[in-house]
Structure formats: structure tokens, C-alpha cells
Amino acid sequence: MAGPIIRGTNLQFFLARAEQARAEADAATLDHVRERCRRSEAAWTALADKALRSEQLRIEEAERKAAMAEPAMPRVDS
Asked: pTM for the whole thing?
């Protein structure tokens, strides 16, 4: 049960860092600082996207395994 909580926390952390970088870019007065913050925002956003995709794949895999583990319903011939 700790896995999804950690993953969700990581996702929230990545999103928070992206938002912080976006705010810093908006507040920057120097072009090179603004560009650095935009690159940082893009990197954190990419990490968040990857974390979200990984979590979705993990859920799909767990569902697939659960479906494979279910016993097949016996056929009833009339």
C-alpha cells in the first residue's frame, strides 16, 4: 500500500516544483534567468508526466494480472 502513496507524493512534488519554476520565470527580470526557469519547468513537467504514465501502466498491469488470476467460468451446456 505504500507504493501508490509514494508515487502520488512524487507526482505532487514534481508538479509543485514545475509551478514554482513557472512562477520564478514569470517574476524574473533577466532573460537568462527566465530561460533557465522555463527549462526547469519543462524538466519538472516531464518528470510529472513520466510519473503519471508509470502509475497508469502499473495500475493497468495490476488489473491485467488480476483478470488472469480469476478462474474461468465453467461453461454450462444445455
From this structure: 0.72
